[in-house]
Amino acid sequence: MTNAFEGLKSTADIDIPTDPFSKVIGQTHAVKLVKSAVSQRRHVLLCGVPGIGKSMIASAAYSLLPPPIDEIRIRQNPEQGDRPTAVAIRAKQDEGGTVAEEETVCDSSFMYPDDLPFEIAVKMGYRCSRCGAFSLPSQNVCMDCGSPKRCNNNADLSYQGLFRALNVAREPALAEVTSEDVLGGHQYRIVYQRSEQDMIRVLRILQPEENVSTKQTCPDSELILVSWNSSRFVQVSGASPVELLGDVKHDPYGSAEGLGVPAHMRVIPGAIHEAHEGVLYIDEIGALGSYQKHLLTAMQDRKYPILGHNPQSSGAAVRVDNVPCDFLLFASCNPEDLSLLHPALRSRIRGYGYEIVLTSWMSRNHHSEMDLIRFVAQTVHEDGRIPHFGVDALEEVMNVAESLAYRLDGQRNAFTLRLREIGGLVRIAGDAAVQEEADIVEENHVKQAELLCRRIEENQALARSDPKYTETFGDYFF
What we know:
It is a single chain. The chain has helices at residues 28-39, 54-62, 118-123, 159-170, 241-245, 271-274, 292-301, 343-351, 366-383, 391-409, 419-435, 443-453, 456-465, 467-477; strands at residues 43-47, 70-75, 85-93, 99-105, 107-111, 176-183, 186-194, 200-206, 222-226, 233-236, 247-248, 267-268, 279-282, 306-307, 319-320, 328-333, 353-357, 361-363, 414-416. By secondary structure, the chain is an alpha+beta fold. Strand 6 (176-183) and strand 7 (186-194) form a beta hairpin. Helix 1 (28-39) runs parallel beside helix 2 (54-62), helix 11 (419-435) crosses helix 12 and helix 13 runs antiparallel to helix 14. The relative contact order is 0.14. Mean pLDDT is 83; it is low at 152-169 and 211-216.
């Protein structure tokens, strides 16, 4: 018996940690990297054999994120019923310390400078205010008419007027211009920003209405797509585009007024949208197949449209652009499945995150023995239906963990970290103790569980090689 059992009567004496990272066993290096990744908002790929805690690490990572501040709503578009608008309702603290709401419409796009409205183009230095000719902002004088740019069209041609015009021309062209517009009965602030590649970014920001309380319920013209109190840790398999990317429900009457359900009320969020400001965990990411390309686009743009995927459904005519999906991707795969990852997606993860290999075993020492005892105590606590383990039972669990490390990984004097296998052993041993109405799990219960936990093929092979095996354990398997 090792020093790990000194003063220990059963797992009832073990304190269960509240920190989710403290519940992760034997992956110290991975935990350190994941904590850094979350603090820096990096994507993570966890690679390792099944049952070593990949899901637990991803779930623990979510606990490090601050609470979400955006509630995503889908707003009806009176001008185009099949083109609803995605709106983010942002919570913030005002001066009085109470929560207020700030509405921002999630709509941004890019346009060429020569497509700008005339007044905006003049202010940003792309158009001559007199003849309207197009030129670059660095040119202070129009090449067509020779007039100083950004001067008033009605300016007089006197000496004083020309002097004022030249003074205006010396002012640098504006890199950002703001205007206002009304769409669908709502007031918007339009922001034009000069960006790279000589493109203009256009932001449409919804302005709060006057004399309307910022605290209000969602009106009928809006659908709450992702609420503030929803869990932003989303685990998916990605088996269908609907699960990952969202969809629009079918209505036999379409969006016909008075008959069909309005388009904005039929929008279904995808996992990428539900994980906005949170963690999107995809187990066995290689199984996504071609959907990995859609995931890559969502990661790059941090927004992704929702549209109907069934061409025979009325939902196929509906499209919601620019729905927010600013998530951290935590993906996992087995080592043999790395070739199934899309090269561009994997490059994105490596360029903006971490690829972390998880180990499947740990050396046997005092520290790892204490970790394994704590894992057994955690499993008993989480199950809630089995008794605690005595010292002899814990020592037998260690023997099984050591045996698995040798059988599966060829490691001596080590414990396996395939903790799903050990968790199954603990539960079955506990069930055996319950059947015998024992107050505590003993060594013989663990030995029974070890036989039951073996694969059917393994037990059948042992039975064929040793007839006494069937005579002794036939009640369990045959």
